[in-house]
Amino acid sequence: MALVVLLLLAGVSEAAGRILPLAVRRPGMSRTRVAGLLCAGGLVEGAVFALWPLTAWTLAELILSSPPTGPTLVWTPELLAPLLLSAVLAFPLLGPLLHLLLFVGVGAGLVGPLAAATDLGWWGAAGCVTLAGAGLGVTVEAVRRLVVRISAVEAREPSP
User: Fold this and answer.
1) Looking at CB atoms within 10 Å, which of 44, 49, 59, 67 has the fewest?
2) Could you give the count of Cα atoms lying within 13 Å of 122 in the half-sphere of its Cβ?
């Protein structure tokens, strides 16, 4: 249960760093709409964070000729705490470079358990974690831009 709460907090914090600047630029947005966007964005970001180790594990299984025999890579509170910190620091005013460095640190924390559970070694596990994180990040960014584009078109259409 603690992991779910940490994932949701990290997701909401990450979403707040993206949605609150948008709400400031559009002063006509209602609080209800901002809260709805924040909750929806938090759930999506939390789901993406939850999928990161599973996606890295799946990539490792695809690379290996025989399936890994160790336990599946999952989030633990020790691995998830830095992710929550990086999500809290995701606000644009605090700097995207710091945010990126913290995500690299979190990814490096995932590499050790993945390397231990598979025969890939540290560099192979690092590649799987990097590809999984980058792939999930690009996918979420594409969906985010699509939603912004759709909502911008809806906002421009006059209501009857």
Assistant:
1) 67
2) 3
Is 142 buried (19+), middle (13-18) or exposed (0-12) by CB count in 10 A?
exposed
Give the tokens for residue 32: 């209800």
Extract the runs of DSSP E, i.e. beta strands, from the chain. none
- Residue carrying the six token digits 């599973």: 54
Whether 133 and 125 have beta carbons less than 8 Å apart is answered as no
Q: For 24-36, what is each residue's pLDDT tens digit?
A: 777 777 888 888 8
Identify whether the C-beta of residue 106 lies closer than 8 Å to the C-beta of residue 79: yes
> What percentage of the chain carries pLDDT values higher than 70?
81
Q: Which tokens sit at 95?
A: 């700097």
Structure-token pair, residue 102: 């913290």
Task: Please report, in angstroms and rounded to a whole number, the separation of the first and last CA atoms in the chain.
Answer: 47
85 contacts 108 by C-beta, under 8 angstroms:
no
> Given a cut of 80, is residue 138 above it in pLDDT?
yes
